[in-house]
Write a structure and sequence with these properties.
Blueprint (H helix, E strand, L loop, with lengths): L4 E5 L6 H15 L7 E5 L5 H9 L3 E5 L16 H6 L4 E4 L2 H6 L4 H13 L3 E6 L3 H5 L3 H13 L4 H4 L3 E4 L13 H19 L1 H6 L2 E4 L7 H5 L6 E4 L6 H8 L3
Bound molecules: phosphoenolpyruvate (PEP).
Length: 251
Amino acid sequence: MRKKIVAGNWKMNLNFTEAEELAASLAEKLEGKALKCEVVICPPALYLEMATDFAEESVIKVGAQNVSNQESGAYTGEIAAGMLASIDVEYCLVGHSERRKYYHENNAFLAQKVDKLLDNDLIPVYCCGEQLEEREKENHFAIVEQQISEGLFHLNTEEFYNVVIAYEPVWAIGTGVTASSEQAQEMHAFIRSLVAKKYGADLAAEITILYGGSCNPKNAKELFSQSDVDGGLIGGASLKADDFVTIINSF
Ligand code: PEP
């Protein structure tokens, strides 16, 4: 059975004390609980080591929100995949729509980040998703296909096993407007079919595909009940321990 994941993207929120309190509260609420999914938190880079310290003592795993496309060297302000690996970070978001929009990251550039993460045994959580105008023009399948093929389909089969995909329709991120469970299922099934066409049905059946976009304690159960939705990438609701735990318990 493929891995279910609930990952929290804290984005650029919380001061250090608040971040530490949130990590501690989550660790406490999850302690000793039989979970049906892996739990990942993605705090700002400055707090990653604090988070991996908590993770050592709990079920929580840690992801970064971003990584450099370069190995090391004169790239001021950047953080290399090898640095993340050296403090036991296990996951990293790649191509979140905010990175695509505000930092102009395109699919070819994101493909380089994916490579650096895999080279360092980190799991890329590759984000894709259409904008509202693209859905209104019924271009959403083509856009997602392009994002996935240009960002991921250079990988070989063995590498692709270590990738997680997050479908996040841009119009649903931070807006309070969630994709319906039918819309999410339809796109997730489409993504799985793309993977099957390229890598075969066995690998496609193993790949974890998360939904992201205004997922909250009220709608998570319905979304996660869809056969091709393997969990969620959660923004706003991951900043409140109780809400995040309710989402984690929604399988
Ligand atoms: C996100 O930023 O990945 C996200 C899904 O945000 P939100 O849950 O706040 O829509």
